[in-house]
Amino acid sequence: MNVLIIGANGQIGQHVVRKLQESKGHTAVAMVRKEEQKAEFEKQGVQAVLADLEGSIDDIANAAKEADAIVFTAGSGGHTGADKTMMIDLDGAIKSIEAAKQAGVKRFIIISAIGVHHRDQWMESAPYYSAAKYYADVWLEKSGLDYTIIRPGRLSNDAGTGKIKAAVDLERGEIPREDVASTVVASLENNHSIGKAFDLIGGETPIHEALNTL
User: Fold this and answer.
1) CATH topology of domain 2-212
2) Cβ of 123: how many Cβ atoms within 10 Å?
3) What residue intervals traverse the membrane (predicted)?
4) Fewer CB atoms inside 10 A, N or C side of the chain?
């Protein structure tokens, strides 16, 4: 499966690229917006394409033309304002969904955030972030694509354990970025995850087993 990773240069995105490259039967295609990022991935033996989430849907669709699936891991980051969050986390996600449809890519996985499907749980410190994630998820659910929405809790850089807790509603908790990436790859390999949206934190259940309980 050729998988286009949007946000490949981000922390989760880099884990996803590596795990896809290490897996059997998958090829990662890193979508980045800078030539130096593209060159760095290519030095690692990873196919890379240039496209900007603040550019056109056509450009993103062109990047996805050889893809069998798209993973959207992009985010504006914690050091930007509400304007950039709306342009990347919301509008960028919606452009990517529309680009997938234009390119004929049915499978789409998006990284969201824990609890954003409940408006009364939106982060008081940055409600625009929760709003961006919420409406991007809703757009994906109504897109007609074979979607999976993964809503991880607080992210850490700890080594992955390969064990998670996944459910429609979970208490807030922490999860290594590596385990989020592993859940993305496992979701690509598990059709039971299609049409599912779930919270994700660290747990005691192997990832494939946890996905089968959704």
Assistant:
1) Rossmann fold (3.40.50)
2) 14
3) none
4) N
Three-state secondary-structure class, residue 92:
helix
Residues 115, 121, 127, 131, Cα dihedral to 10°: 50
33-64: string of b/e by CB count within 10 Å (b at 16+)? eeeebbeebeeeebbbbebebeeebebbbbbb
1-14, pLDDT tens digit by residue? 999 999 999 999 99
Residue 50 CA to residue 65 CA, distance in Å, equals 13
Helix (H) or strand (E) holding 201: strand 196-202
H or E, element range at 70: strand 69-72
- In this predicted model, what pLDDT tens digit does every residue of 107-154 receive, in sequence order? 999 999 999 999 887 877 678 999 999 999 999 999 999 999 999 999
- Catalogue the active-site residues: 129
Q: Which of 73, 96, 95, 92 is nearest to 84 (CA)?
A: 92
Q: What is the β-pairing status of strands 163-167 and 196-202? A: antiparallel
DSSP-assigned letter for residue 163: E
Buried b (16+ CB within 10 A) or exposed e, 173-191: eebbbbbbbbbbbbbbebe
Residue written as token pair 């299609």: 194
